[in-house]
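Preliminary data (for renewal application), zinc ion complex.
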Amino acid sequence: MKAITPVNERGNFSRRHFLSTASAAVAALWFTPGRLFAEGESPVIGFRKAAATAKITIQKLRGNISLLEGSGGNITVLTGRDGKLLVDAGITASRARITEALDSLSADPVRHLVNTHWHFDHTDGNEWLHSLGAEITAHENTRKHLSVATRVDDWNFTFPPSPKGALPAKVFKKDHKLHVNGTKLVLEHYGPSHTDSDISVRFTEADILQTGDTWWNGHFPFIDYSTGGSINGTIGAAEVNIAKVAEKTIVVPGHGPIGGKSQLIEFRDMLITIRERVAALKEQGKSLDEVVASKPTADYDARWGSFFINGRTFTGLVYAGV
Ligand SMILES: [Zn+2]
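Predicted structure:
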């Protein structure tokens, strides 16, 4: 996954460069033994800075569905006569480049937005997309967390209440269906997993499943204990995702490239193995520092630890929940 792209002529960092270097530095800073972050810049600030110059790439998936990658979490776009439907909103600093990408897909106005969960890298763009006419649909806990000041301890950051226009107008508890542009979309709550607000979005006819941050393809995931996430819930959601897909299903993760069933299984197995190792060490009475020092993720770090969450941070996230 690690790709080095040179700083461009204007001195801006490309997204990949940021992800492979700057955020690795943030992640390294972010973890000091005994706590998950160090004093200094919150990773939220780093992500927002990167989004201001990030390049947005477009990948056609199936039918009238495309993937926009580069601003926070993955964004899918369904085009058609009912107007565009977006799943996730990216980061506001990328508005100009997201607009350019949307315009290149079709002339349809944006009319619908679904949030996979409440995190800023999936909802930051809610306000401007709503101002264009998008009705926002999400799990009720997404609205709850966006409505009030919400702190994520591990990010050392408190998000202020979102402006009214950014709040989902349509919320649900368990599941919800939408019919847009000849497509049936099925939205289903996972239960507490990465947060307590995560939903999957299935584009039924195209056989595409978007998992939000219950799946990071090729990366250790963040787990937000501040708003109901846990390692056990994350493993539970990984099992749900495997059960939801067939061999031909295109699966869109919250972060990383698209994949399918075999990558979901690989991710689930990685979570279970590291959970077992960390739990065994904690049961022996080892402190977090001691568990981190024993490097329970060592054989996974090269493959999974080069993005936002490195092996040390992930060990801390697992330790907190076993
Ligand atoms: Zn998230």
